[in-house]
Specification:
- This protein is an alpha+beta fold and 78 residues long.
- The protein has one domain.
- The chain contains three helices and two strands.
- Strands 1-2 form a two-stranded antiparallel ribbon.
- The chain is elongated, with a radius of gyration of 21 Å.
């Protein structure tokens, strides 16, 4: 993994790294998310509450409708 050394000036710009934050480019596009250790969030906290097996099972049994149908109904209700 790459590392970036944060000096005191940068640390001040990052508000002390005490809460999760997004890194964005000048156009406002998110480049990445950063969660500092001091935020008290562990990798386990970032795990999904649902297993991959359950997600696969739900995807296999999906009984939705095409988006075009839903949008058509929505347009009729306007």
């Amino acid at each position: 993994m790459n590392q970036v050394v944060v000096n005191a000036e940068m640390l001040a710009k990052l508000h002390g790294l005490n809460a999760p934050l997004d890194f964005c480019n000048e156009q406002g596009q998110v480049l990445g998310h950063f969660v500092p250790y001091s935020a008290g969030i562990t990798p386990a906290d970032l795990e999904p509450a649902i297993s991959l097996d359950e997600l696969r099972r739900r995807a296999e049994n999906f009984q939705g409708r095409p988006l075009d149908d839903l949008l058509g109904e929505w347009e009729k209700r306007k």
